[in-house]
Design goal:
The strands form three sheets. Strands 3-11-8-5-6 form a five-stranded mixed beta sheet, with no helix packed on it. It has a four-stranded antiparallel beta sheet with strand order 7-4-9-10, with no helix packed on it. The chain is built from nine helices and eleven strands. Helix 2 crosses helix 3. With about 300 residues, it is α+β, with helices and mostly antiparallel strands. The two termini are about 45 Å apart. Among the domains are: about 60 residues, 434 Repressor (Amino-terminal Domain), CATH 1.10.260; about 35 residues, no CATH class; about 90 residues, no CATH class.
Amino acid sequence: MLDKNNTLQYDHIILSQERKKQKISQETVSSQLTLSVLQINSLENNLNTGFVTPHFKSLALKRYAKFLGIDFYKIILPPSSQQEITVDPIAEEELPQVDINNSNLLQPLKLIIKRKGVAIIIGLILLFLGLLFAFTRTDNFDEKASSLEIITPDLNMPKEKNVGINVKGIGPISENFIKNTKIIAASKKDIQEIKNTSDTLPIEFLCSIESASMDKIWSRVNPEKPPTYFHIVSLKKQSICTIDNRGILRKYNLSEGGKLTHRGEAPFKVQLNPSITELYFQGWKVYLEENDTFIQLNPVDMAIELN
């Protein structure tokens, strides 16, 4: 369910509870999903930090739920199960009660009886019965109309040829009408199909190197190679992405034992899985810790001393 800011609404508490139940640290999740700890914390607390757009946050949320073994659609907050019905306040007002014993109302009737006789009285009775019959037919129509399902179409929907589908006597409606109708509740078959789809969703790699903060900034004071490239050996299958000083973004899919030499202009920013990666820059091996998902490789003349 999306709110008015086009942001996915979900029960974020389930994520942290399930992660703690499985005794998994945020650093481990960050390493396995190649997301920063800041982004993991943002998902667990439903914050907007760490992601460029709500779309990237939704993709990361789907990957996180898949990693924890949670059905993605179980944490999404559902829309209201009932439509609001506006009641006309005028319709709820009670009709004024007429006191038939009021002598002021009976005076005109007495005059009519004296002047027109029995024929006028019979005419009034017939008129009263006709009005009563008309009101009875109106009430029955309202009851039948209220029994029909309320279908609210999208008013911005373009006109389209009918496809011959009838809904409780309403008549033929178009396919777009059906797609844009607000459905109150899904059938059990539809829910089962959604569950089956969520079970087959892969944990896709999400490149967020452009917006993420760096977990480590690395450099050497005595380089042996030029800073125009870096080299990677992947111990298992993984995806990585990198961006250099000129803003050129590249994404690579490495197989188990795959090797990569990326050339460009330093400094380089790299997003990878530190637990299955060997990284080399300027002739030296970069020693990665468990949560070093985002690495910045600085040449010697741009070295930054870390505390």
